[in-house]
Design brief:
homodimer; about 70% helix; disordered N terminus; DNA-binding; 2 domains; about 240 residues; mainly alpha; Arc Repressor Mutant, subunit A; Four Helix Bundle (Hemerythrin (Met), subunit A); GntR family transcriptional regulator (chains A, B)
Chain lengths: ~240, ~240
DNA sequence: GCTGAAACCAAAGCACGATTGGTTTCAGCC
DNA sequence: GGCTGAAACCAATCGTGCTTTGGTTTCAGC
């Protein structure tokens, strides 16, 4: 699996040209709203190359996770769609914030536990980086995004496909709801600082491979979040 | 909403005739393997009635939950398909028994907790009946079925749509797997008696509306189940 | 050994008409 | 007025056939 040859930027004259060209299309060239790339045959004609060369380049981009392909459908930028999202969209209509919170309070501490028992050193580094991004975020919106990424990363590292699916389900419903705004109002500079400290505590427990402590810290974090959300909802009433 | 007229078995001469005829088709008339009924137009012609009458009869059967209809598709006996099952079928392939058990251990105690806090007297009666059926089951297979129904009932009573979906996901994957056989081997007369006692304990806690105790009892039950499953797998090795 | 070209396969999309449940309207009949 | 039967129309779905598109193989040239 190890590339022997030192030339990494210029594998072969033609292949590299094609690869760079397509990479540029993906990264800066504006694509249709669905992210669809031109067809392989079209790209080959446009770049004056053969289909085989184009396919080799696309193979690489796909391996890098920049694009995904489906026979009969096309080539698209980004990640392949997740069937969990569709299910989430279907049941999102009759789920209230309280139910979502109950579900989070049930599953996320367990995920933190598993995460602590299975995380590699590399994983912990990534988590710390995400916590830092959450901390450094300028506005409340981007803090929200990085916070979501952190919780998602913990769920992924936990390494249980079923529980990850359940988490994704909750996460999608939570995001798609119109009570986004309520959550937004619940975030203040004070709460954000508090959340950052709790994130630290969770990650420290994971770093120490202490599953029970990680679960406890996560539960504490969620309960704080829950309380603030509830308070902000009562304030509205 | 209250029917004033005493005639319940004979609402109107024609409507009742059509209703009975279709009810008979659904209950005893053999249908195609997918449970599809003849089309409304076909039924109307065959029964010598108008489409409106047929539709009224079908409306009633649908309200009773005996059939379900979809525009452009047809009328079918039984319950409408659950999108959760499809998702479960998709991810079932890369889920091992251990992951499923982890997931159950995470979610079912929480469901028992919620169930204890929300169950009505009627709910408890139903649970006791299911536990009894599990106890009285002749063979291991039917015990398995009633046991599943009991756990599902607890999940439903918990009254959280998201968590019910997550439970259904786990349940479907668990059922569809080929390690059904392993679970079968793990059930012996001794373990069955033990499980019955644990079911009692769970339901007693629910009856007492003691959420924490219900969760504890459920966790204990699942851990026993888990241990036996693991032992039976090791025995095979 | 890589490239370009061509041909074929299989999965998905698209367009079309047919089918089917959902709805409305209308006339006939208690 | 209320139920019935008939008809017409709407909207979702399905089946069919053709096209598109990625996946694969083959072959000749450099």
């Amino acid at each position: 699996m190890i590339q022997d040859r030192p030339k990494d930027t210029q594998e072969t004259p033609e292949a590299d040209r094609v690869l760079q060209a397509i990479r540029q299309i993906v990264s800066e060239g504006r694509l249709p709203s669905d992210g669809r790339l031109p067809t392989e045959r079209h790209l080959a004609a446009e770049l004056g190359a053969g289909r085989a060369s184009v396919r080799r380049a696309l193979d690489r981009l796909e391996a890098e996770g920049l694009i995904w392909r489906r026979q009969g459908k096309g080539t698209f930028a980004g990640q392949p769609p997740d069937p969990t999202e569709e299910l989430a969209a279907q049941i999102a209509s009759d789920v209230d914030p309280l139910s979502a919170m109950e579900a989070r309070l049930c599953i996320e501490p367990a995920l933190a536990d598993l995460c602590a028992r299975r995380a590699t050193g590399e994983d912990v580094v990534r988590l710390r980086k995400l916590a830092e991004r959450t901390h450094d975020a300028d506005d409340s919106d981007s803090a929200e995004l990085w916070d979501g990424a952190l919780h998602r990363a913990i769920a992924r590292i936990a390494g249980n496909r079923l529980m990850l699916t359940a988490f994704t389900l909750i996460d999608e419903v939570r995001m798609g709801e119109d009570w986004q705004e309520k959550r937004h109002r619940a975030r203040t500079p004070q709460t954000r600082a508090f959340y950052d400290a709790q994130h630290q505590k969770i990650i420290d427990a994971i770093d120490a491979r202490d599953g029970a402590a990680a679960a406890r810290a996560m539960r504490e974090h969620l309960e704080t979040l829950f309380d603030n959300l509830r308070k902000s909802m009562e304030r509205r009433t």
